[in-house]
Structure formats: C-alpha cells, structure tokens
Amino acid sequence: MSLPTTCCDVLFPNPIVLASGILGTEAGLLTRVARAGAGGVTSKSASVRPRMGHPNPTVLDWGYGLINAVGLANPGLAAEVAILQEAKTMLKPLNVPLIASIFAETIDEFGRAAAIVSRAQPDLIEVNISCPNVGHELGHPFALDPENAAAVTKAVRNNSDLPIIVKLSPNVTDIVEIGLAAEAAGADAIAAINSVAGMVIDIHAARPILANREGGLSGPAIKPIALRAVYNLYEAVQIPIVGIGGVSSGRDALEMIMAGATLVGVGSAVRQRGVSALGEIATELAHLLDDLGYDSPVSAKGVAHVAR
Amino acid sequence: MSLPTTCCDVLFPNPIVLASGILGTEAGLLTRVARAGAGGVTSKSASVRPRMGHPNPTVLDWGYGLINAVGLANPGLAAEVAILQEAKTMLKPLNVPLIASIFAETIDEFGRAAAIVSRAQPDLIEVNISCPNVGHELGHPFALDPENAAAVTKAVRNNSDLPIIVKLSPNVTDIVEIGLAAEAAGADAIAAINSVAGMVIDIHAARPILANREGGLSGPAIKPIALRAVYNLYEAVQIPIVGIGGVSSGRDALEMIMAGATLVGVGSAVRQRGVSALGEIATELAHLLDDLGYDSPVSAKGVAHVAR
Amino acid sequence: MLPANRHSFSLPQPAHIVRIVRENYRTVTFTFDLSWPDAGPGQFLMAWLPGLDEKPFSLLHNDPLQISVAAVGRFSRQIQQLHSGEQVWLRGPLGHGFQSQPGPMIGIAGGYGVSPIHFLATWLRNRRERHVIIGARTARDLLFAERFRAAGVQVHLCTDDGSAGEMGVVTVPLNPLLAAMPDATIYACGPTPMLEALAAICREQHRGCQLSWERYMRCGFGVCGSCARREDGWLACQDGPVEIIPG
Amino acid sequence: MLPANRHSFSLPQPAHIVRIVRENYRTVTFTFDLSWPDAGPGQFLMAWLPGLDEKPFSLLHNDPLQISVAAVGRFSRQIQQLHSGEQVWLRGPLGHGFQSQPGPMIGIAGGYGVSPIHFLATWLRNRRERHVIIGARTARDLLFAERFRAAGVQVHLCTDDGSAGEMGVVTVPLNPLLAAMPDATIYACGPTPMLEALAAICREQHRGCQLSWERYMRCGFGVCGSCARREDGWLACQDGPVEIIPG
Ligand SMILES: Cc1cc2nc3c(=O)[nH]c(=O)nc-3n(C[C@H](O)[C@H](O)[C@H](O)COP(=O)(O)OP(=O)(O)OC[C@H]3O[C@@H](n4cnc5c(N)ncnc54)[C@H](O)[C@@H]3O)c2cc1C
Ligand SMILES: Cc1cc2nc3c(=O)[nH]c(=O)nc-3n(C[C@H](O)[C@H](O)[C@H](O)COP(=O)(O)OP(=O)(O)OC[C@H]3O[C@@H](n4cnc5c(N)ncnc54)[C@H](O)[C@@H]3O)c2cc1C
Ligand SMILES: Cc1cc2nc3c(=O)[nH]c(=O)nc-3n(C[C@H](O)[C@H](O)[C@H](O)COP(=O)(O)O)c2cc1C
Ligand SMILES: Cc1cc2nc3c(=O)[nH]c(=O)nc-3n(C[C@H](O)[C@H](O)[C@H](O)COP(=O)(O)O)c2cc1C
Ligand code: FES
Ligand code: FES
C-alpha cells in the first residue's frame, strides 16, 4: 500500500490534509498536526488586514457536528507570512506540504493577498471565496456566483506562480457551475466543501446561540452534502478535487476518494479524535485500501461513478 | 396552555403537522397519525399522472438522519383524490386539517394538478416545487429560481380557491429570494424546508447506495439548516411559515417556533418515535411552553429574533 | 459531537455468501457470513444488489443469517446467479416477528412462506406438539418437507392438483387440526389470498392467529408509507410483517 | 438514526444563580443550581451571557458548580450585575485539570487563580501537608485567605507593596517552602508572568510543577487553535489549561 499522493505536482506523504481554520493558527500547531501523521496542512484563512472576528460564542458542538462563526479572525497577512515561514521551516524535515489559505473582501484585495502570501513560499495557495464580498452591493460571498468566483481566481492567478486551490461553498444552487468557472479562470484544483450555513437556537435564551446568529455547519452531519458535491464536481471538472466535509474515519476518507477526491480534508474530526485524528485516518485508509485490493488512493479515485 | 393554532384561517388543534412523504400514502394511515395526536396531516405529493418512482434503495438511515430518493412515486391525482376524500371523511370527527401536497413537471400541469386536487376539498394545498422542471431546458427544480417559483404559485392560485402553501427547497443560494417571489405571486404560506441534497456511498460496492445516486437528507442533521432558513424567511415574508426539518422533540419544535414558524412539520422523527411521534412532540411542546411562561405557541413565535 | 461511523448498522452491510443450497427447481437457500443473534422468526431483511434493486426477505435463520429465495422475477433470478464468496448487502433485522405462545404450534406455509415458519419451528423446538401445513400448486413447488421432519415437526402436505399430499388448499388439512387442538396457536406465512382465507376461518371460529403479510416496501422502518394497509394504516414493515390477531 | 437531542451537554446549559458571595472589592463567587460531579480542579467552563459574550472560568467547585469572577472588563462586570435566580449558560467541564500527586501540596495562586487552587486543596483534603501561597498587588486584592485556613490549609500571603503578608511576589515565600519540602508538588494558577517565573525556578531546581495557563479561547475543545502556544502548538483548552511539567 502506497499512500503518497501527488496533487498539482506537489507530493503529499498521504492524502489526508488538515482543513483551513482548524488548528491552523500557529507554526508549532501546524507542525504538531504534521508530526501526528497528516499528509498536508492548511493554515487558517488570512486577509491583508488583521480581523478581530466575532465575539463568542463562535464555535459550538451541537451534537451531530460543529457550527462556527469565528468571523475569519486572523492576524493579517504581514504577521501570517511570518507564521507561514516558520511553519515551512518546521515542516521541511517532515516533507509535509503547507497550504496557505487566503481571503479578501474585494477582488483587487484577493490579488494583493496572493502576492503577499506568496512571499512565504507555501507549497500551494488555497483561496477561500466563502467570505462576503463587501465590494458587491449585496455583500454576498464570492463563492455564490460564477462570475465572482472566476474574477477572484484570475486575480490570484495573476499575482502568484504557486498552484491555486479554489475552495467552494456548498450554499449555492449549483456548485458545479462555480467549480467550472474557477477551473476556466485558472484554478489548479478545487476544494469542496466549506461549511454549510445553519443556526442553533437556545429556547431558554430565546435567541440564536452564536453571536453572529448564523454560522457554518461541519462534521458528521455534512458528510453526505460534501460527498454529493465532490461526486458531481468530479463529473464536470478536469482538475483535482480536495474533498472536505465530515470525514472522521478512514472509511469516510475512502468514500470521499471514491466520489472523486484526490486529497481529503479533515477538520471537525479533531473534536472527537484529537490532534492525531489525521494520522489515524491515514492509517485506517491504508488498511481499508489493502483489504479492498486497491494499491493506492489514486486507484480508488472516482470508482463510485457508475453509468447513468 | 392553549395549543390550537390558526394558519391561513384554518384551525389546527396543535401546531405539529405531518410533513409530506412520511406516512401520507393512505387515508387510514393519515387518520392514524391524527388519532395519535398530530395537529394536521399532509398527504404524499401527487402528480396528474401516476409515477412508479425509483427502484430501491430509496430510503435509508445513514446514522444522523435519513436520505431518500423515492422519486415522487404516487398513484396519480385521480386515485389521490379518492384517498384524500376518504381521509377528509375520517379526519372530520377529529377536527384535524388535511393538507394535500401536489407537484408537476410543467407550470401548466401545476395548474391542472391544483384544479384536480381541489375537488377533494382538502383544507389547504401544499405545492411541492422541489421536483425537476422537465419543461425547463436544464431540468432544474422550480424551487431553484424565483421566476419559476412565482409562475408555479400563480398557476396554482388561478386554479384553486383553497389556501396555498408553497414548499421551498434549501438547495439554493438564497431561499429568502424564492420565498419572497412565492409570496408576491399569491402564496398564503411558506413551508421550509424540503430535504437537503446529499449522497451516501458504500465503499464495498464502490457506488452510491441510492438507486438514484443522490437524494434528500432529513432528520436531526438538517435541523440547523432548517432553523436558519425559517429565521431568515421570517425576517422577510409577511405570510405564515411552516417550519420543517429535523424536528424530533418538543424542544426542537419550540426552536422552530422561536425562529418564526407558525406550524411545525415533522417527518423523519417517525423513524425514532413511531406513528405517535407527532402527538408526543405536541405534548412536550405544551409542557415546555408552560415551563417557560408562554401561554400559546403563537406567543413564542419569532422571539429568537434580536436586534442586529 | 458523536463518534464517527454511527451508521454501520442502519445502512446495508456487505455479507459474503458462504453456502448455497438448491431447495427445488426455483428456490435457493443462501447462508451468509453474518449473524444477527437478536433477530427472531418473522423478522426480515432488505437485500441489496448494487445497480439492481433492494428487496425484503424473511429470515430462515439468524445465526448465521439465512434466507430462501424463489426465482419469480428480476431480482430473485439475479441473486440466484451469485456464487459462494460473492457479496450481498443486508439491512436489518427489520419488523416485528412471531410471538411465541404457550401450547402447540400449527405452522402454515405457502410457497417461500416456509422460510419464517421453519425458523419459528426450530425456535419452538421444545414445544410438545409442532405441526406444519405446507401448501403449493404442485408437488415440485413444495418446499422444506424433509427439513421440517428432520427438525421433529409433523408435516402435512397439500397441493392444488393433489400431486403430493392432500388435494386442495391449506385449509383442507387445517380443519381437522383445528378441531383436534383447541389450544394450538396458528402461525402462517404465504400468499395474500391464503392469509385472507385463514383470517376468515379464525375469525369465524374465534381463534387467534399470527399472519405474516407481504407488501411492497421501501424504507422497511415505518417512515415512507409504501407498505400501509388502506383501511387502518397498518404498516407491514414496522407493525408487522406479522399481524397478531387476537381470538 | 440517533435519538433526538443528543446535544444537551455540548451546547451551553442554562443554570440559575442560587447564591452570590462578594469576596473582595472586585471579586464575586457564584453558586449555580447545576452539578458536574465528574469535573475536577483545574477544569473550566465557558459562561455565556446572551447578547454579550462567552468567557472561560475555572471551577471553584463542581457539586454544586461555583466560579469566582474578578471584575476587570465588560463581561466580568456584566455578570456581576446579575442577581440570585437569574440565568447564566454554562458549557463544560472543559480541559484537563491538575493531577493529584502523592505527598504534600504547595498551591500558588495569583489573583483569581485562587479559584482552582482552592478546589484542589479541598480535593486533596486528606493530604498530610497543604500549603498555599496567595499573591496580590495589595492587601485588598488578596482573596480566599480565610477560606483556605478554614479548610485546614497553611496560608502564606505576599503583596507587591507589603500591605499584607510578605512584601514581594510569590517566589519570596516559595523558596523556603521548596527547601523544606523536597517531595511537595507545586500546583499554580495566576497571571502569565507569575507562571513563567515559577516555570523558570522549577526548571532550575529540576522540580516538576503543574501550571494552569490562561489564553484567549473560542471553542474550548481543541479545534479552533485560538489558544495555541506558538512554539509547540500546545492547546490551553484541551492539552491544558494545566500543564504538567515533569521534574
Ligand atoms: C416481508 C417480506 C418477506 C419476504 N420474504 C421472501 C422470502 O423469504 N423469499 C422470497 O423468495 N421472497 C420473499 N419476499 C418477496 C421478495 O421481496 C420479492 O418480492 C420477490 O423476490 C420478487 O422480486 P423480483 O424482483 O424477483 O420479482 P419482480 O420482478 O418484482 O416480480 C415478480 C412477481 O412478483 C410480483 N410483484 C413484484 N413486486 C411487486 C409489487 N411492488 N407489487 C405487487 N406485486 C409485485 C409481480 O407481479 C411479479 O409477478 C418477501 C417479501 C416481503 C414483503
Ligand atoms: C482557563 C481560564 C480560566 C479562567 N478563570 C477565571 C476565573 O476563575 N475567574 C476570572 O475572573 N477570570 C477567569 N479567566 C479570565 C476570564 O475568562 C476573562 O478573560 C475575564 O473575566 C476578563 O473578561 P472581560 O470581558 O471582563 O474583560 P475584557 O474586556 O475582555 O478585558 C479585561 C482585561 O483583560 C485583557 N484581555 C481580555 N481578553 C483578552 C484577550 N483575548 N487577549 C489578551 N488580553 C485580553 C484585556 O487586556 C483587559 O485588560 C479565565 C480565563 C481562562 C482562559
Ligand atoms: C472552527 C472552524 C473554523 C473554520 N475556518 C475556516 C477558514 O478560516 N477558512 C476556510 O476556508 N474554512 C474554514 N472552516 C471550514 C473547514 O475548513 C471545512 O471546510 C469544514 O469545516 C468542513 O470540514 P469538516 O467537516 O472536516 O470540519 C472552518 C471550520 C471550522 C469548524
Ligand atoms: C421518505 C421521505 C419522503 C418524502 N417525500 C416528500 C414528498 O413527496 N413531498 C415533499 O414535499 N416532501 C417530501 N419529503 C420531505 C419532507 O416532507 C420534509 O420536508 C423533510 O423530510 C424534512 O423534514 P424531517 O427532517 O422532519 O423529515 C420526504 C421526506 C422523506 C424522508
Ligand atoms: S416500507 Fe416504508 S413504511 Fe413500510
Ligand atoms: S479554544 Fe479552540 S483550540 Fe483552544
């Protein structure tokens, strides 16, 4: 069984990568996840200027998964570049690639963010387009329409030579349309999915619990939503897909790979399984692939696609 | 504590109503649910012509809820009218209103369906616009864009004097926009949400388990998605909302009411709690309202809305 | 947040066929490498063949799992094409089965209805008296007579054409048994007309009976309404498949 | 499918305040009508005031739940406005607390750090020797001295200005204790500079210690990374808040 997987010409020791926003705040923490067996790590999304994020409650466990509205809190890209450089140095001896996640509130700013983050020379850039477009009259996230998604992708493309992963939101009528737009605009890979819009309410307080009222669902509850997104994207795009959403075991990871994922992102499973979740999932995946007679993750990629 | 609730001038003995597609196939079964304490019952969606639906597997329990792709199997509206008439007669002594659910594949057919179903004189008509629009070049469900949703609503409006509930899909970029379009086109109420698009995959079979590959998620996993939809719709529309999605206890029902629901639809909870789920949930709701000092469901309606 | 992979028992589980026994010209018994020790006679499973369909089958045994399948259509013919070592996906145990009553057993089986009745007869192996009536159109359709005898059950056969046992339907051998054993419980599984006839007889004689009905099924767990009886909404998958009719 | 409402323990639970005790000019102790019998000293909870914020507080007691809050900012001032009978929403118990070691206890508490140290002292009530060093800026900031004494703990006070106890920081009374009790375990909670000084002393003397650190927290369960230490990614909420440093 050979787990090493290539995506966008970058070699990952295994296909299980840390999703953005989970444990991705510090170099020491990214390295800790890598040491515990992750195949790749993604930093928390950062923007040109620092952001405080929303007041608490921002992250909750509602029983079938998590909900969060951290509000993209981050120290700003100047500080982030230092974190990424430190992380790069620490990750190098482990041969674990670093994916740097960026976001912005206008298309121009996405370009600037890409230029700044590239200075840290991460192995790939992930473009989180699920944040609200403040330049847009309605404030809708860029991920919600194909024109915006394409414009953001182009802006990043024009400002960096690094491979670009565009991360899609599931909160759209047609995720495939957005994926195709990103691909056409020059994305090297697609990540799907970001968290699913939702709300938890406390009947005693008679109000939503998150300070931001609504937030993003993640964890076991969203796995079928993610599988469907990856499955449908795989039938449409040619570029590799990072499948993310509700993966908490080797079995879940294999489902995602069979749906068409090249890499598998893991976030909320850290809640149940701790920092070593990713390494454990990679090991479970290796055993399962062996049991089922596949000689590598890529040999199982997309096999769940059957003739219509 | 007074549970009786009026919606569209129809009096429901309590706000907990059976969602369409769950136990709604036969008059005897609708009556059984009513006898077990439901405040209202919705029949399985029916179309002008009969439909076989998809082969099995069509309904599965994936651990955090159900997934289904029954394919809108139904005996056709001619046979359905007989079922509804029988149900009406059986429900009358119980004073439990009957909601008749219809769907169609073209806008004209929606009008015809409304005309036919009205012969059975159900108390309300629910318009399920989540089925694919075969008249439309892309085959997208009517629920996915505001123009289609409005056109369907008008066609039904023009063919029936009964109160009309338009049932929305959560699989859209902006559910509020669709709700507003239905309201403007003459809907008397909104039902939200229908099931959430998803997929389950079996790694041993290396394929999606549902014969239709993808299906609709329901049950506990989708409750936060439903709460968010109802909350946001409540801030936009003036007409009453039937809140549906993942409600399996009186507490869940109260969360839905606090988000803005006038009636609360219950479906998948029957899996855990049996045919008496609805009656039990209504009782739990009454106790909770009492404990929290509300004198009726309507006095708790929308209280989770706080100033932004 | 809950532990991962809570779903394993609700979704279809892959099982390997470990033994295939041909029972007659159209019926085959499959033994799987899976056991459901808590499942009882009258309960059923949903068997999925990926790409084809998923259908309900009564348990012939729980530990290991066994089902008997009569080739009548697409699915039942296809499953009979499988070889030992191949996989079938099983979901269950589903439904409510027979409730064992004190006193003698009269089992009545039509066609592949022998399957749950045989499971029941082995379940009640310590009963003083166990009788089973097996009915079929013709001799070559009769199933399990030797198996029942080997299990110590008194077997009564009948065929429409008299080619084996008594000529006529199951009520022919039943009537004398009913008269001879006023304290016996009737447990039956078979085609709907047979069950309707039995229900009528028992109603007339004010005798209780337990009848296992067949209906088209989708969910198998009481949600979709596919298997509902029109009049009273009785759900074959969840309230049944065995209906306990008091005397 | 799982039973409904699995979430009750992970989401904030409403608790009523049943008792409010003013400890000093800025610190108040709240007792709630909720118990977490499995929670131990050093563990914490997140307290939510709807519409305002959610903040971590160390447990002063588990059964019933108690916390002590020093008014220093928006949240801590607001919670002190509440009256008996009003509600606070509590989420926990979170984190890993102190690990009781055999032998004597030396507790070191700065500011509201007295809270988990007092819980620990009552937890270890059968120990031969229990000492606690309470440090503060000035006399009126000192907390819990009488409570510790009432619990049979030997109390050593120190203040920056010498207005009570010895003049100086906690290391002043600590040094003679360390010398006198080579087998004592050091358990400490207080401001970061105090803990850093203690860590340095213990490192130098090759003595183990247990230090409870404070960091800004969001999830409280090891997911968001808000509370991570830069160098090694140690998570105050999940790996800690108590760091067990071997000798
Ligand atoms: C609780 C239960 C237990 C069962 N136990 C067994 C068992 O132990 N062994 C066994 O062999 N079979 C059993 N069956 C029947 C089995 O589920 C299948 O129906 C049977 O195998 C035929 O499926 P097929 O696809 O091969 O045939 P099909 O192609 O489906 O049809 C074969 C024949 O059956 C009739 N039929 C099929 N489906 C329907 C339907 N939806 N409505 C009305 N008529 C229909 C058709 O009219 C046709 O004549 C059981 C059914 C139920 C509900
Ligand atoms: C594990 C743990 C246990 C705790 N236990 C207790 C306890 O038992 N009793 C108690 O009173 N408090 C405790 N705290 C501190 C408490 O959580 C709050 O931080 C404190 O109440 C101040 O909140 P506030 O909103 O009132 O003040 P704020 O308005 O937040 O600020 C007050 C002061 O604290 C500083 N501060 C606040 N937030 C931050 C931040 N994110 N980063 C850096 N500095 C900040 C500010 O500089 C300011 O000077 C604990 C914290 C942790 C992490
Ligand atoms: C606390 C938290 C913070 C997150 N922050 C980010 C973020 O900054 N950028 C981003 O692209 N996704 C973010 N996400 C989404 C995750 O990267 C991931 O897409 C989602 O959680 C689904 O995966 P999971 O079910 O494995 O957690 C966050 C998720 C969580 C739970
Ligand atoms: C088996 C099944 C069949 C369904 N069929 C229909 C249908 O025919 N028409 C419809 O409008 N909704 C249908 N639904 C959706 C439900 O009415 C409801 O909107 C959804 O299940 C969410 O509610 P729940 O979580 O309480 O089940 C179906 C749901 C299930 C589980
Ligand atoms: S098969 Fe779905 S209710 Fe019986
Ligand atoms: S507070 Fe989220 S990881 Fe510690």
Largest interface: A-B, 46 and 46 residues
The radius of gyration computed from the alpha-carbon positions of chain C, rounded to a whole number of angstroms, is: 18 Å
| Tertiary shape of chain A | globular
The sequence of SSEs of chain C as H and E is: EEEEEEHEEHEHEEHEHEE
- Name the CATH homologous superfamily of chain A: Aldolase class I
Radius of gyration of chain A: 18 Å
Distance between the termini of chain C: 49 Å
Mean pLDDT of chain C: 93
What is the typical, i.e. mean, pLDDT of chain A?
95
Poorly predicted runs of 5 or more residues of chain A: none
Helix content of chain C: 10-25%
Describe the structure.
Chain A is an alpha/beta fold. Chain A has one domain (5-300): Aldolase class I (TIM Barrel). Helices cover 34% and strands 18% of the residues of chain A. An eight-stranded parallel sheet of chain A has the order 3-16-15-10-9-8-7-4. In chain A, helix 3 (107-118) runs parallel beside helix 4 (146-157) and helix 7 crosses helix 9. The mean pLDDT of chain A is 95. Chain C has 247 residues and is α/β, with parallel strands linked by helices. Chain C folds into two domains: 13-94, Translation factors (Elongation Factor Tu (Ef-tu), domain 3, Beta Barrel); 105-245, Rossmann fold. Chain C contains five helices and 14 strands. In chain C, the strands form two sheets. Chain C has a seven-stranded antiparallel sheet. Mean pLDDT of chain C is 93; it is low at 4-8. At the A-B interface, strand 11, strand 13, helix 6 and helix 7 of A face strand 11, strand 13, helix 6 and helix 7 of B. The site of one flavin-adenine dinucleotide (FAD) has 21 residues of chain D, from strand 4, strand 6 and helix 1.
